Amino acid sequence: MSLTRASPRSLTRGLILSKPSRRTYAAPGEGALPASKKKYVPTSGTYPLGFSTGSAHVGVKASNTRFDDLALIASESPCAAAAVFTTNKFQAAPVTVSREILQRRKGEGIRAVVINSGCANAVTGRGGIEDAIAMGERTDRCFNEDNNGEDDGNGSRTIVMSTGVIGQRYAYSLFHSLIPLLYHLLSQLVTTITNHPPASQSKKSQKPSPAPTPNSAAPTTTGSPQPAP
Asked: Does some domain include residue 183?
């Protein structure tokens, strides 16, 4: 049996193809945007009023030590919502839970979307379903305990979304304390913006800095968007 010696050119080509590449999927915890992602971020236009957004570093994946991996989008009042879901037979727990919420509520009365990266909560069985439900209900309690919402008997008002590793459950305890903290900072920011509106619509609005917290994983909030000049 004879062996054919590989040419230097083919070996070089193989090395080039196998060269590792670094890709950034989220903004660092300090809020800087990777240069490769700036093209996806709008710099002008009219944004919807009545919504607040924020993010925090939780550390869903042990290897993630600085990238925000928990986000919250909150509506100042109950709003209508709609979604398109995958038809894949292996649907992740957040897909099942969120679809049932929208069907039960008929798309009405939604207050928030809570999102995590690092773990897709997919192919995780009944435990994954329970984790997704608990994540949404923890967010609901933030509104209710703040007298900013009520239980109308139709179940959760929070849509849950997850992306990341498949086949593993996340540690729900990571979110238990960070979701209320993130909600609280969003509430502070909305109040600040409401009490101190821009002096002139012709001037670019400045976003107030969130109050410092003793938590080392301080969320980064972006607040309610302002109307375009």
From this structure: yes
Number of separate domains in the chain: 1
Domain assignment present for residue 11? The answer is: no
- Closest to 54 measured CA to CA, from 193, 202, 151, 183: 183
The reply to whether the predicted model has a pTM over 0.90 is no
- What range does the domain containing 203 cover? 45-221
Is 28 part of a structural domain of the chain? no
CA distance 129 to 133: 6
Q: Is 112 helix (H, G, I), strand (E, B) or coil?
A: strand
Q: Are 201 and 227 within 8 A, CB to CB?
A: yes
Burial of residue 121, with CB atoms counted within 10 A of its CB: 0-12 exposed, 13-18 middle, 19 or more buried: buried
Domain holding 52: CATH number? 3.60.70.12
Task: Describe the crossing of helices 93-105 and 125-145 by its angle, rounded to 10 degrees.
Answer: 50
Question: Do residues 71 and 55 lie in contact, with contact meaning Cβ atoms separated by under 8 Å?
Answer: yes
Distance CA 140, CA 157 (A): 6
Q: pLDDT tens-digit profile of 19-69?
A: 443 444 444 555 567 788 788 777 776 667 888 888 889 999 888 888 889
